[in-house]
């Protein structure tokens, strides 16, 4: 159909001129798709245009699944899928007693647990710059760690070990920490929202 408007006018004029109910029904069916166009502001159900808007907010990011196995590797990178100066994967869920291997894939990074953002009674850690470090996490809860040289750029990561028993405390600490990030200010809250 080259011109829908002309088709619609022709169809309508047919409706009036024919007058027969059978013909009307047939024509109504034919013009129905033209009448079902959804106007802005109407409740149009789910449209393709609505989906990207939902994905843009951190609260709608998908939840992370539990990682299989008892050993997990996190790379320290200058650039990754979350941007520059990142841990990858930056969000991970593991089981109590699992071991995390931080790999110095790129240089001048480290991994250090953040004060007040690990479960109470859990051991803190602080890796050396440009060196691998492995930590075994025996206490259940959420751990947040940073790269010391790049914490202002929000080079941080989160690990959930077992249940998120200390999430309220971590969320509160993360809110206080937010003002210290001069770049990627929403990165940590975005990570936490995926647990
Ligand atoms: Cu770094």
Labels describing this entry:
195 residues; alpha/beta; Immunoglobulin-like; 2 domains; four-stranded mixed sheet; 5 helices; binds copper (II) ion
Overall, the morphology is globular
Instruction: Average the pLDDT over all residues and give the rounded result.
Output: 82
Number of domains: 2
The tally of beta strands, per DSSP, is 8
Helix content: 25-40%
What sequence of helices (H) and strands (E) makes up the elements?
HHHEEEEEEEEHH
**Given the helix and strand composition, which structural class is it?**
alpha/beta
Can you tell me about this structure?
The protein has 5 helices and 8 strands, in the order αααββββββββαα. Helix 1 runs antiparallel to helix 2 (21-35). By secondary structure, the protein is α/β, with parallel strands linked by helices. The two termini are 51 Å apart. The radius of gyration is 28 Å and the shape is globular. The protein folds into 2 domains: 4-55, no CATH class; 61-193, Cupredoxins -  blue copper proteins (Immunoglobulin-like, Sandwich), CATH 2.60.40. The model is unreliable at 6-20 and 46-56 (pLDDT under 50). Helices cover 28% and strands 22% of the residues. The protein has a 4-stranded mixed sheet, with no helix packed on it. Strands 3-8-7-5 form a 4-stranded mixed sheet, covered by helices on one side. A hairpin with a 2-residue loop joins strand 1 (71-80) and strand 2 (83-88). Copper (II) ion binds at residues 85, 109, 147, 149-150, 155.
């Amino acid at each position: 159909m080259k011109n829908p408007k002309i088709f619609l006018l022709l169809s309508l004029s047919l409706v009036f001129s024919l007058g027969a109910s059978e013909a009307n029904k047939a024509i109504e069916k034919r013009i129905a798709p033209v009448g079902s166009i959804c106007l802005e502001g109407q409740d149009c159900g789910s449209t393709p245009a609505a989906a990207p808007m939902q994905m843009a907010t951190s609260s709608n990011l998908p939840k992370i699944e539990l990682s299989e196995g008892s050993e997990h590797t996190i790379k320290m990178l200058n650039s990754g899928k979350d941007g520059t100066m990142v841990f990858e994967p930056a969000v991970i869920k593991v089981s109590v007693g699992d071991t995390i291997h931080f790999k110095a894939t790129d240089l001048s990074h480290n991994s250090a647990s953040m004060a007040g953002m690990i479960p109470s009674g859990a051991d803190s850690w602080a890796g050396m710059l440009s060196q691998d470090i492995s930590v075994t996490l025996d206490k259940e809860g959420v751990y947040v760690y940073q790269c010391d040289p790049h914490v202002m750029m929000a080079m941080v990561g989160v690990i959930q070990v077992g249940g998120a028993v200390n999430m309220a405390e971590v969320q509160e600490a993360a809110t206080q920490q937010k003002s210290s990030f001069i770049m990627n200010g929403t990165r940590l809250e975005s990570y936490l929202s995926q647990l």
